[in-house]
Each structure stands twice: as C-alpha cells, then as structure tokens.
Amino acid sequence: MSAAIMDFVKTEKSRGLATIQSDTGTFSLKSSGVYFSGFGKDGQALPEKRICSPLKVLGETRNQQAQDWGRLLEWQDNDRNIHRWAMPMHLLAGDGADVARELLKRGLVIAPAKSKKVLEYIQSCDSISRMTCTDKTGWHGGAFVLPEKVYGEDAHTWIYQQDGGAELATAQLGSLEDWRSNVASLARGNSRLLFGISCAFAGALVYPSGLESGGFHLHGGSSSGKTTAQIVAASVWGSPDTYKRSWRATSNGLEGVASQHNDGLLILDEMREISGKDAGETAYMLGNGQGKTRSDRNGGARLAKTWRLLFLSSGEVTLSEILKSEGKRVYAGQEIRIADIPADAGAGMGLLEHLHSFTTPAQLADHLRYVCSRYYGAAGAAWLEAITKDHKQLWNTLPQQINTFVETVAPNASGQAHRVARRFGLVAIAGELATLYGITGWAQGEATEAAERCFKDWLTNFGEGHRETKQILETVQAFIERNGAKFVNLSLAQPLPVPDQVGYYRPTENENGREYLILATQFGRVCDGHSQKQAIEVLRAHGWLNAPDSQGRASISTRLPNVGKKRVYLLTIQED
Questions:
Q1: Global pTM?
Q2: Least confident span in 228-232, 378-382, 544-548
Q3: How far, in whole angstroms, is CA 367 from its chain's centroid?
Q4: Which helix (H) or strand (E) holds 378?
Q5: 455 in helix, strand or coil?
Q6: Contact call for residues 421 and 413 (beta carbons, < 8 A)
Q7: How far apart are the C-alpha atoms of 502 and 521, rounded to whole Å?
Q8: Measured between alpha carbons, how far is 566 from 556 in angstroms, rounded to an integer?
Q9: Helix ranges restricted to H, 341-377
Q10: How far, in Å, are 277, 408, 421, 422 from residue 412 at the CA level?
Q11: Edge-to-edge strand order for the sheet containing 503-507?
C-alpha cells in the first residue's frame, strides 16, 4: 500500500470508532473481534456476542460519477496477513451472500450464523473520509492503479474496487536484484528476450505516448523457444504461470481479459488454439481498444469494455496463415494491429543468439523457466514507482523519442509500416527507460538495438510498401492460377466455352506472358473482396491493367467469339 493510502488508513484508525449504534443494538470493535449486543424483550441490552474477527471499516468509496459506492474494509487472517478490500455496496442487496463469501475466502473469521450481523455492522459504519474507486487498472490522472497498490502522487485519491471475478495476476516474489541478476542478465545478447521484457514495461506507456493499442506475434516451430520470451516478459509483473494467458477463448471472452490488462501487457500463448474467425476479430478488437456494445437487462446500452495495452502473442503459425488455411481473407488492418516477428533469430539456436554459460539452447530456456518461477514482480513495481514520479516528463518527451526511432529505422516506409514502427519505438524507449532507472542492469542502447532488429525482421516480411497493394496483386494472381480452367483460350481456331467462365486469355505480342480478358461482370470475383476501384488503381500502377479508354473507363469493349461485343478488363501478366 502506498504511503498516501497508509496516511488515509492511519487517519481513520485514529478516529477510534470502537462502538457503533444501530437500530437493533450496539456493535463494538475490539482487539479480539467485532461484538454485538442486541435488546431483550424488556428493552434492556443483552450480553454481547462475538460475530467475527476484527474488521475495520476505513472509509467510503465511489467512482467519478458519484456511483458505485462502497466501503474500504481491513482485517487480518489467522496468519496475520493484512487484507484490504474496497467492497461495492450493491453486493449487500438481497441476502449479501456474495460479501460473506468473499470475506471468508480472504480469511475473515465469521461466527456461525452471524454473517448477516457482519453485513449489518458494515452498513452501520459511517465515515466522513472518501476515496475514488475504479474497476480499471492503469493511469488515472497522475496515479497508476493496480488491485493491490496505487502508485503516484495522486495515489491517496484512488482505490481499486471490483465486484469479483478474475483480476490482473500481478504478484511479487524475490527482490529486484534477484530478478535483475537471474533473469534480465540472461536476456542480454538475445534480441527476442530483450524485446519481450521491454514489451512488459512498454504497456504502461501506451497512454502517455498517445499511441493506439497493438501487439506482436512471435511465430515459429514448437521448439523455437517463442514461449521463453513470453515467460521472461511475464516475470516483470508476476508469476508466468498465472500472468500468461491463452488464446483459447472467443473474442467475447478475451474482452474481459483485455480490460483487466489496461495500461499493461497482455500475453497470449499459442494462437493455434483459437479459430481463424475469432483470431481475426480479436486482432481488430485488441488493437481498437474496445469490446462490443451490448444491451442491459432493460434493453439499454451497457458501457462497452475499453482498454489501452500492448499484447505479446505466440504461435507456430501467423494469423495470416491461420486465416488462409480456413479460406478467409487477410486484411491489412489485422496485420497492422498484430506485427508478426519470426521467433528464430537466425543464429541456429531458435529464439536464442547468446547462451551465456550454458551449453545448449534447451539448458538456457529451462533455466530461465526455473528462475522466472522464483523471481518475479519486483521489476514491475519498481517501474511503476519510477514512471509515476516522472509521468509529466514522459507525457512531454515520449512522442518525439518515438519519432526519432521511426526516422532511424523506417524513413521511407509506407504509412502502415510507419504505424507499426512507432509501436516498436515505444518498446525500445521503455526498455531504455527501465535501464536508466536501474531496473534491468542492461547497457544503454541494448533495448533499442533489440527493437530495431525485431522491427527489421518484421519489415522484411511485410514490405515497405502499402500492404493492400501487395495483397491485391497476390489476390489477382492467385485467382488466375487457381481458376485457369475458367478462361477460354483465344489462340484456338474454334475456342470452346468452359463452365463457370470468367474470361479469355491469349499470349502477349512478345509471347513473354499472357493477356487475360476478364468479363466486366466477373471482375469482382477476381478482386475477391477487395475494392474494385482500389484494385483497378493498383493493377494499373503496376502495369497489369490497360490504360483507360477515351471516356476514362478501365474496361474496354471488344468482340469475342460466339458472344459478340463485351466489356472486359484487359490484364497483362508477364511470366518470370
């Protein structure tokens, strides 16, 4: 708990509210527990009975819209662990069983058949001290909210409050020095490991940088080591076993998971476990930062879940390969939102490039898995302490630092590649800042070098040009190759009709290629879902399509065997 919240708690404790009157009797808070004394038939006070172990009501909570009121509760379990919970008051509606269940789950001792009295005690406690609650992690003004702690100069005004269910699985085991010496040090010399750890820091900078949400996808064979990069990234925030999530969900199910990782890093393992349809929808959803709008029980619109985050995915295949294998079209927007990075770093050791003192890649990977299970979470805590102190400067300097990275690695890239380069730049800057703050133990420049390497590997596959241009050319050529039997050969003396005809073909004048006369009514099939107008512009720009006619039309009128005059698109494809 932050110093600011501790001050808030101390203030409440100093008020010394040991006795609370209610309509049914008197509640007394003592060192041994909470006691209740009711009234007998004669109106006299009955002997008090213990209803639960000591339970303090430290203050009231509510959100920025003066709704979702709650109580900040504090108690100690039998192992002397202190628990604090911002309990939503609406959970007391009905029989209040949800509240009793949560208190018991977290170690409060409640006397048999006294749950309702405990709930009455909570409701009877009034407080003049109030805090603003939120069910969303991340930045709130100058404060950064996590379920277990709030960081920053505004920490005293905020507290995390959730109805229940899964929360962000942040946790800490071992010291920062333990993590730095045993985990971060072994990432040095390995671009994918450096990049993964830098991603873990970068999630908290999406909002200050003004960038949109987006992700990276490490792809490669089952023994390439891609999961190792996710494990070391997860160790920044918590135990990899619980922090790392799976793609095995629908896009609707991942909305809640994404919302829990607001202003953080969402790690999704093995894309093959999700269908192509859901994978495509999820790529858009995670990048757009908003879930679906749904109706409430009264037919009104519920607020859609929202988030800002980076996500680090892994899988044996890319999103494009999954979609194509299911016969679905790949959109450039999907490839922009999730940048594919080959897990193989090209050193003949899968994801790894430097083994340090280990003999084989498997030995280093196994060791990293082991140390990440023993040392985790301290780096994330130190990171939030640093950036909340520095948050005003971050807001002012991050955009220019990102621009500098982009100008260095992609000065002539298309607008689409430029967008992705900015995301890589954010990761580079986060890694450098974590090094500057003394968190990683790396040398200055190592995080940037790793991000540049990963970006160039992505760009090699994506290309510097406009992605839709490449996709249109590939789509048209693939259609023709796949449907050659649907074109009539004009070289024959008596061309024969073919089933499901798309058009005609003939050799070019120099016989180095073919001319395809695509019937105007069939041109949309050849474009296969792309805009026909955009396809015409791309094909013409690359010399595949004839110049427009005298009236500016892309199609031309020509006489064809057995059918007479028809409008066609004259497409020329040169042979290699």
A1: 0.78
A2: 544-548
A3: 27
A4: helix 378-389
A5: helix
A6: yes
A7: 9
A8: 8
A9: 361-374
A10: 33, 10, 11, 14
A11: 487-489, 503-507, 513-519, 564-574, 556-560
